[in-house]
Amino acid sequence: MSRLCHIYPILMVRIDESWIFIMMPVKILMVEDEAAIREMVCFTITQAGYQVFEAGCVADARIAIADSVPDLILLDWMLPDVSGIEYARTLKKEEMTRHIPIIMLTARGDELDKIRGLDMGADDYITKPFSVKELQARIKAVLRRTSPLLTEDVIDIDGLRLDISSHRVTANDTSLEMGPTEFRLLHFFMTHAERVFSRGQLLDRVWGGNVYIDERTVDVHIRRLRKALESEHYDRYVQTVRGSGYRFSTKV
Amino acid sequence: MSRLCHIYPILMVRIDESWIFIMMPVKILMVEDEAAIREMVCFTITQAGYQVFEAGCVADARIAIADSVPDLILLDWMLPDVSGIEYARTLKKEEMTRHIPIIMLTARGDELDKIRGLDMGADDYITKPFSVKELQARIKAVLRRTSPLLTEDVIDIDGLRLDISSHRVTANDTSLEMGPTEFRLLHFFMTHAERVFSRGQLLDRVWGGNVYIDERTVDVHIRRLRKALESEHYDRYVQTVRGSGYRFSTKV
DNA sequence: GTTTGATGTCACGACTTTGTCACATCTATC
DNA sequence: GATAGATGTGACAAAGTCGTGACATCAAAC
Fold first, then answer.
1. ipTM of the complex model
2. Pairing relation of β-strands A245-248 and B10-15?
C-alpha cells in the first residue's frame, strides 16, 4: 500500500480517520500570494479529490509548470511580480500551456467587469470572498467544459477504446495486451490528446512524480506502448515531437 | 449474531420469532442530515433485507464510499455542506461511483419538478413523507432496472449457473463443489462482471469488511475458486489483472 | 473425543514488469 | 555527406507479482 503511493500517481486524501485513494488525480495549480487564501483553497480542492500545488508568484508558477503541467490553473489577478492578467495572456499564447483552463480570482466584484473586458483568455472568473461550494462548482464546470474526457470511465478515440473499470484496451473490438505502466500512459495520453508533453512531465503525471528515474525510460515505455498498439495500427497515434517530447494525436 | 455480521456479509433479519439469513446483502448508503428520517429509513430498509450505512453530510458520505462502494445511494437534496444535487452530479461523473444508482429524497412534492429539471443523473425520486412500502418498492425497482443481477435468485452467465436459494453452482448441468467463501466470491463476481476489483475491495465486499486479513488470502481463494470451476473450463472467466486485482469476464 | 471440512498464512517457484544500458537509426545543420 | 544530437530498439538483471501446495488452526458434526 505505501509502496503503491510512491510509485504510482495515486492521491491519498486523509479525511478524519480514513484514507481515500484517487487514481491518476486531476492536478490543479494555484497561484496566489496571500497565504490564508492559499490554505483555504488548498484544503477545499483537496477535499474535492484534486491534487493541488501552489505558487506564491508568477516566477514560482513558471517553475512549477515546467515540472508538471496542471489540468487547471487558479490565478489571482494581483500578484507580487507580474499581474495575473498578463500571465494569463502569456499562458494562452504558449504552445505548452494554451490548453490549460484558467480560473481568475478577483478581489472585488466591481473589478470583475474590468478584468473581463480585458479578455486575457481565462475560462471563468470568481470573486473573493467565495464559498467552498462555489469554487468546487466552478472547477467542476470548467473541467467538464474544457476537458470532458478527464472524468470519463470509457474513453473511445477513433475506435481505440480504453475502459477503466474493466481495465481493458480494445481496438475495433480486438483486445490489446499491455503492462500497467503502458495502460496508465495511454490513459494519460487519451485524456490529454493533441498536446505535447516532455519526458519530465510524463514522468510526473504517469509515474507520480517525486521519482528519480532516467528520462530515457519514458522512451522505452513509449516503445512498449507502440508495440502493444501496432497490431491494430494505432501506434501511429503515439507521435514523437523531436526536441520536445511525445503527443497522442489522431491527426497525420 | 454479532460475529457473523462482522466477518461475513451476512445480514440477519428478525421477523416475528425466527431469524432469516440473507447472503451477500445489497449495500445501501443513506445520506441525510435529519436523524429522525435516518432512523426511520434505516429501519425500513434493514427490514427489507438490505444493509445500510449512514452519512449525515457529504463529507461523511465520501469517507463511507471510500471504504466500501455501495450498490445504491439514497440522497437527500438538502444537506449541510454540499447540496445533494451537486453531489449527485459529482458521483455520476467519477469513475468509481458513476454506476451507482441514486434515489433522491425531496422534502416537498412541489420541489420535485424543479429538481427533476436539473437532471443531475438520479435514477429515481421520492418525496418526503413517504411510506415504508413506497420506499421499499422504489429501491427494488431501481435495483432491478440498473443492476438486474443483484436481485436475481438464479444467475446464469454463459452456462455457468449460480442458484442462491439452493446454494448450488452448476456448469452445463454439472454440479460444481466449492466452499462457502468461494461461493460468495463467485456470487460477487457474477453480479459485478466485467469490472476489476482490488484485493482490498474484494475483502470488503466478499469477506464483509472491518477485517484485518492478509490481502494475499484473496489469491488463495481465487485459486480455490478456479480449481472448482476448471473441470468445466469456466476457470478462464476468473481473470487476473496484474497490478490491479481480479475480474470476472466472459471475454477472452 | 474424534473426525471432517473450511480458512488464513506461509514459503517457494514461475512468471511479468521495469529501469538501465549499448548500439542502431534517424534528423537537422553545416 | 559528415557530424552531432536526438530517438528507436533489443537485451538484461533486479524487483515485483502471482500461482500453488502444504500446514496449522478452528469450529461444527458425529
1. 0.70
2. unpaired
